[in-house]
Amino acid sequence: MSRKPNNSRQTRALLATLLDRSQTWRHGYDLAKETGLKSGTLYPLLIRLSEQGLLESRWQEAERPGLPPRHVYRLTASGRALAREQELAAIAAERAGALA
Amino acid sequence: MNVSPGWWRRWAVKLAQHAVWVLPGAQSPWVEAMRRELDYIEDDRAALRWAVGCVFASYKARLAGLPRIRGRVGRGAVLQHAATSGALMLVVGLALLENAGGQTEPPRPVFDETTCDRPDLSPDIDPILSSGTVSVPRDIDHSAPKPDTSCADRIAPIAFPPKYRKP
Fold first, then answer.
1. How far is B138 from chain A (nearest CA, A)?
2. Model confidence, pTM
3. How confident is the model at residue B3 (pLDDT cuts 50, 70, 90)?
4. How far, in Å, CA of A35 to CA of A20, rounded?
5. What residues of chain B, 61 to 90, have a C-beta less than 8 Å from chain A?
6. CA angle, A90 as apex, A84 and A96 as ends, to 5°?
7. Taking CB atoms and an 8 Å limit, are A39 and B37 in contact across chains?
8. Global ipTM
9. Is the pLDDT of residue B69 over 70?
Protein backbone atom coordinates (compact mmCIF):
# COMPACT_ATOMS: atom_id res chain seq x y z
CA MET A 1 0.00 0.00 0.00
CA SER A 2 1.52 3.34 -1.00
CA ARG A 3 1.36 6.22 1.41
CA LYS A 4 -0.44 9.36 0.32
CA PRO A 5 2.20 12.05 -0.26
CA ASN A 6 2.28 15.28 1.75
CA ASN A 7 -0.17 13.90 4.26
CA SER A 8 1.98 13.68 7.36
CA ARG A 9 0.94 15.72 10.38
CA GLN A 10 4.04 17.92 10.00
CA THR A 11 3.43 18.59 6.30
CA ARG A 12 -0.19 19.42 6.93
CA ALA A 13 0.79 21.83 9.70
CA LEU A 14 3.32 23.50 7.42
CA LEU A 15 0.89 23.78 4.51
CA ALA A 16 -1.79 25.22 6.79
CA THR A 17 0.66 27.80 8.16
CA LEU A 18 1.80 28.80 4.70
CA LEU A 19 -1.79 29.00 3.49
CA ASP A 20 -2.74 31.24 6.38
CA ARG A 21 -0.89 34.17 4.79
CA SER A 22 -0.40 32.67 1.37
CA GLN A 23 0.81 35.84 -0.37
CA THR A 24 3.40 36.69 2.27
CA TRP A 25 6.99 35.52 2.00
CA ARG A 26 7.87 33.65 5.18
CA HIS A 27 11.24 32.98 6.86
CA GLY A 28 12.33 29.55 8.01
CA TYR A 29 12.67 30.53 11.66
CA ASP A 30 9.23 32.14 11.72
CA LEU A 31 7.74 29.02 10.16
CA ALA A 32 9.52 26.85 12.73
CA LYS A 33 8.13 28.95 15.57
CA GLU A 34 4.63 28.99 14.18
CA THR A 35 4.41 25.30 13.32
CA GLY A 36 6.46 24.08 16.28
CA LEU A 37 8.66 22.09 13.90
CA LYS A 38 12.38 21.75 14.52
CA SER A 39 14.70 22.95 11.77
CA GLY A 40 15.75 19.34 11.12
CA THR A 41 12.16 18.50 10.23
CA LEU A 42 11.12 21.76 8.65
CA TYR A 43 13.82 22.12 6.02
CA PRO A 44 13.53 18.62 4.52
CA LEU A 45 9.80 19.35 4.17
CA LEU A 46 10.48 22.70 2.52
CA ILE A 47 12.98 21.08 0.15
CA ARG A 48 10.49 18.36 -0.78
CA LEU A 49 7.62 20.80 -1.34
CA SER A 50 9.89 22.95 -3.47
CA GLU A 51 10.99 19.98 -5.58
CA GLN A 52 7.31 19.10 -6.11
CA GLY A 53 6.60 22.62 -7.34
CA LEU A 54 4.35 23.42 -4.39
CA LEU A 55 6.63 26.01 -2.84
CA GLU A 56 8.61 28.89 -4.26
CA SER A 57 11.60 30.46 -2.61
CA ARG A 58 13.88 33.43 -3.07
CA TRP A 59 16.55 35.41 -1.26
CA GLN A 60 15.34 38.56 0.44
CA GLU A 61 17.61 41.42 1.42
CA ALA A 62 17.85 42.04 5.16
CA GLU A 63 15.78 44.86 6.58
CA ARG A 64 18.55 45.81 8.98
CA PRO A 65 22.08 46.58 7.77
CA GLY A 66 24.81 44.11 8.65
CA LEU A 67 22.60 41.04 8.44
CA PRO A 68 22.75 38.54 5.58
CA PRO A 69 19.93 38.04 3.06
CA ARG A 70 17.32 35.50 4.12
CA HIS A 71 15.71 32.67 2.23
CA VAL A 72 11.94 33.18 2.13
CA TYR A 73 9.12 30.90 1.07
CA ARG A 74 5.51 30.93 -0.05
CA LEU A 75 3.14 28.49 -1.69
CA THR A 76 2.74 28.33 -5.44
CA ALA A 77 -0.74 28.13 -6.97
CA SER A 78 -0.63 24.33 -6.91
CA GLY A 79 0.66 24.44 -3.33
CA ARG A 80 -2.26 26.63 -2.30
CA ALA A 81 -4.67 24.25 -4.03
CA LEU A 82 -3.21 21.27 -2.18
CA ALA A 83 -3.26 23.14 1.15
CA ARG A 84 -6.93 24.08 0.65
CA GLU A 85 -7.77 20.52 -0.32
CA GLN A 86 -6.15 19.24 2.85
CA GLU A 87 -7.89 21.85 4.93
CA LEU A 88 -11.28 20.81 3.54
CA ALA A 89 -10.42 17.13 4.11
CA ALA A 90 -9.48 17.89 7.72
CA ILE A 91 -12.77 19.75 8.28
CA ALA A 92 -14.74 16.87 6.73
CA ALA A 93 -12.91 14.34 8.89
CA GLU A 94 -13.60 16.45 11.98
CA ARG A 95 -17.34 16.62 11.16
CA ALA A 96 -17.46 12.91 10.45
CA GLY A 97 -15.83 12.26 13.81
CA ALA A 98 -18.34 14.51 15.55
CA LEU A 99 -21.29 12.75 13.92
CA ALA A 100 -20.05 9.24 14.70
CA MET B 1 28.54 24.13 35.37
CA ASN B 2 29.38 27.62 34.21
CA VAL B 3 29.29 28.09 30.48
CA SER B 4 29.91 31.49 29.00
CA PRO B 5 27.05 32.94 26.92
CA GLY B 6 29.12 32.87 23.74
CA TRP B 7 29.79 29.16 24.11
CA TRP B 8 26.38 28.15 22.75
CA ARG B 9 26.65 30.58 19.85
CA ARG B 10 30.15 29.41 18.91
CA TRP B 11 29.00 25.82 18.79
CA ALA B 12 25.91 26.76 16.82
CA VAL B 13 28.11 28.44 14.21
CA LYS B 14 30.47 25.46 14.08
CA LEU B 15 27.59 23.02 13.64
CA ALA B 16 26.01 25.15 10.93
CA GLN B 17 29.34 25.27 9.11
CA HIS B 18 29.51 21.49 9.38
CA ALA B 19 26.02 21.25 7.90
CA VAL B 20 27.13 23.39 4.95
CA TRP B 21 30.12 21.12 4.47
CA VAL B 22 27.91 18.01 4.50
CA LEU B 23 25.63 19.23 1.74
CA PRO B 24 27.50 20.67 -1.20
CA GLY B 25 26.05 21.02 -4.67
CA ALA B 26 22.53 21.71 -5.84
CA GLN B 27 20.93 21.71 -2.41
CA SER B 28 23.52 23.89 -0.76
CA PRO B 29 21.32 27.04 -0.96
CA TRP B 30 18.95 25.33 1.45
CA VAL B 31 21.58 24.63 4.04
CA GLU B 32 23.01 28.10 3.48
CA ALA B 33 19.51 29.42 4.17
CA MET B 34 19.43 27.51 7.44
CA ARG B 35 22.85 28.82 8.40
CA ARG B 36 21.89 32.42 7.72
CA GLU B 37 18.81 32.13 9.90
CA LEU B 38 21.24 31.78 12.82
CA ASP B 39 22.03 35.49 12.55
CA TYR B 40 18.38 36.27 13.19
CA ILE B 41 18.01 34.04 16.25
CA GLU B 42 18.81 36.12 19.29
CA ASP B 43 18.73 33.43 21.95
CA ASP B 44 22.01 31.51 21.94
CA ARG B 45 20.52 28.22 23.08
CA ALA B 46 17.78 28.42 20.47
CA ALA B 47 20.53 29.07 17.93
CA LEU B 48 22.31 25.90 19.01
CA ARG B 49 19.09 23.87 18.74
CA TRP B 50 18.53 25.35 15.31
CA ALA B 51 22.07 24.42 14.23
CA VAL B 52 21.65 20.83 15.44
CA GLY B 53 18.54 20.67 13.26
CA CYS B 54 20.59 22.03 10.34
CA VAL B 55 23.01 19.14 10.70
CA PHE B 56 20.17 16.60 10.75
CA ALA B 57 18.49 18.23 7.78
CA SER B 58 21.68 18.31 5.74
CA TYR B 59 22.42 14.63 6.39
CA LYS B 60 18.82 13.76 5.60
CA ALA B 61 18.99 15.69 2.33
CA ARG B 62 22.30 14.12 1.45
CA LEU B 63 20.94 10.64 2.06
CA ALA B 64 17.84 11.37 0.03
CA GLY B 65 19.92 12.77 -2.83
CA LEU B 66 22.11 9.71 -3.31
CA PRO B 67 21.70 8.01 -6.67
CA ARG B 68 19.78 4.75 -6.46
CA ILE B 69 22.39 2.77 -8.33
CA ARG B 70 24.76 3.11 -5.41
CA GLY B 71 22.10 1.68 -3.17
CA ARG B 72 23.18 0.23 0.12
CA VAL B 73 26.87 0.84 -0.31
CA GLY B 74 26.48 4.59 -0.82
CA ARG B 75 23.99 4.99 1.98
CA GLY B 76 26.12 2.87 4.26
CA ALA B 77 29.10 5.09 3.58
CA VAL B 78 27.10 8.23 4.31
CA LEU B 79 25.63 6.70 7.45
CA GLN B 80 29.09 5.71 8.58
CA HIS B 81 30.32 9.22 7.87
CA ALA B 82 27.38 10.70 9.76
CA ALA B 83 27.88 8.40 12.72
CA THR B 84 31.62 9.14 12.86
CA SER B 85 31.12 12.90 12.58
CA GLY B 86 28.35 12.83 15.18
CA ALA B 87 30.41 10.80 17.60
CA LEU B 88 33.39 13.09 17.09
CA MET B 89 31.30 16.20 17.67
CA LEU B 90 29.83 14.63 20.80
CA VAL B 91 33.25 13.78 22.19
CA VAL B 92 34.57 17.27 21.46
CA GLY B 93 31.46 18.83 22.98
CA LEU B 94 31.71 16.73 26.12
CA ALA B 95 35.38 17.49 26.45
CA LEU B 96 34.67 21.21 26.16
CA LEU B 97 31.83 20.95 28.64
CA GLU B 98 34.13 19.20 31.04
CA ASN B 99 36.68 21.97 30.80
CA ALA B 100 34.31 24.90 30.53
CA GLY B 101 33.87 25.12 34.30
CA GLY B 102 37.55 25.00 35.13
CA GLN B 103 38.81 27.80 33.00
CA THR B 104 39.81 29.98 35.91
CA GLU B 105 43.36 29.85 37.16
CA PRO B 106 43.95 27.83 40.31
CA PRO B 107 44.13 30.07 43.39
CA ARG B 108 47.55 31.24 44.27
CA PRO B 109 48.59 31.90 47.85
CA VAL B 110 48.62 35.58 48.68
CA PHE B 111 51.33 36.78 50.91
CA ASP B 112 51.13 39.35 53.64
CA GLU B 113 54.22 41.34 54.18
CA THR B 114 54.87 41.25 57.89
CA THR B 115 57.55 43.39 59.33
CA CYS B 116 59.51 41.62 61.93
CA ASP B 117 61.10 43.19 64.90
CA ARG B 118 64.52 44.36 64.20
CA PRO B 119 67.27 42.71 66.16
CA ASP B 120 69.45 44.75 68.32
CA LEU B 121 71.93 45.68 65.68
CA SER B 122 75.21 47.20 66.04
CA PRO B 123 75.16 50.84 65.00
CA ASP B 124 77.97 50.03 62.59
CA ILE B 125 75.80 48.02 60.28
CA ASP B 126 72.53 49.71 61.04
CA PRO B 127 72.31 51.62 57.76
CA ILE B 128 72.83 48.43 55.76
CA LEU B 129 70.02 46.38 57.31
CA SER B 130 67.18 48.85 57.30
CA SER B 131 64.33 46.40 57.88
CA GLY B 132 63.42 42.79 57.44
CA THR B 133 60.23 41.21 56.03
CA VAL B 134 58.74 37.76 56.31
CA SER B 135 56.24 36.42 53.77
CA VAL B 136 53.28 34.65 55.34
CA PRO B 137 50.54 33.03 53.24
CA ARG B 138 47.07 34.41 54.01
CA ASP B 139 45.32 31.07 53.66
CA ILE B 140 47.42 29.19 56.12
CA ASP B 141 45.83 26.97 58.71
CA HIS B 142 45.09 29.31 61.62
CA SER B 143 44.81 26.49 64.08
CA ALA B 144 48.50 25.92 63.61
CA PRO B 145 50.85 27.99 65.72
CA LYS B 146 51.47 31.40 64.22
CA PRO B 147 54.82 31.98 62.64
CA ASP B 148 57.33 33.56 64.88
CA THR B 149 57.92 37.05 63.61
CA SER B 150 59.93 38.23 66.50
CA CYS B 151 63.15 37.23 64.85
CA ALA B 152 64.20 35.93 68.21
CA ASP B 153 66.23 33.29 66.52
CA ARG B 154 68.45 35.93 65.13
CA ILE B 155 71.54 36.49 67.00
CA ALA B 156 71.73 39.37 69.17
CA PRO B 157 74.10 42.21 68.91
CA ILE B 158 77.07 41.59 66.83
CA ALA B 159 80.16 42.52 68.62
CA PHE B 160 82.83 43.80 66.35
CA PRO B 161 86.47 43.66 67.26
CA PRO B 162 87.74 46.99 68.54
CA LYS B 163 89.80 47.68 65.44
CA TYR B 164 86.66 47.81 63.34
CA ARG B 165 84.75 50.03 65.65
CA LYS B 166 84.27 53.66 64.89
CA PRO B 167 86.33 55.96 66.92
1. 51
2. 0.60
3. low
4. 12
5. 61, 64
6. 140
7. yes
8. 0.82
9. no
